[in-house]
Amino acid sequence: MTITPSHIIQYLYCPRFTFFEYVLAIPQYEEKNYKVIRGRDLHNEKLEQNKQYLRKKIGVKEKHLDQYLTNGLLRGKVDEVLLLEDGTMSPLDYKFAEYKDKIYDTYKTQLYCYAWLIEENFGKKVKKGFIVYTRSKHKLIEVEVTESDLDKIKKCALEIQLIIDNNFFPKATKYKKRCLDCTYKNICIK
Ligand code: SF4
Description:
Elements: H1 5-13, H2 15-23, H3 45-58, E1 60-70, E2 75-84, E3 89-95, H4 105-122, E4 128-133, E5 139-144, H5 147-166
Parallel strand pairs: 3-4
Antiparallel strand pairs: 1-2, 2-3, 4-5
């Protein structure tokens, strides 16, 4: 089984989510515990103009749209893979969302996952990624991507694989508040 950015996001919320959902196959009925807000596909002329403008602002030399990428362990679909003037590459993700002065950790995690996929598939370094908030007049936010961000994502992917392949029961999240409205709270030993 290949892992998706959603698995990584769930794992980071609580490693036991992975166990309950993918080892015991108990579905979670509530999505509110972790937020993966997908960008909605909006195809119109205005949007295309905005996209061109943003790529120019970033200094894009080459673009690859809607890339389904995998590295054997992780898979994901990146809205845009951009080659920048300094020879590095960047993922760009459109969010059908408003920018509220804070970048959700889930958004950052998605970008780190894409960065790892891009580095392995295109053989280029990724130092930053971009998020476009389509409901805030296409506000463009740059997110730094460091080696330690990538190491963290790689470590998570390996741990998820260990849980799923070896039925390994992982430790609980250290943030006990998360257990309060967790969908698995009645079956989980805390
Ligand atoms: S109850 Fe707490 S420890 Fe158990 S799965 Fe939910 S968040 Fe994780």
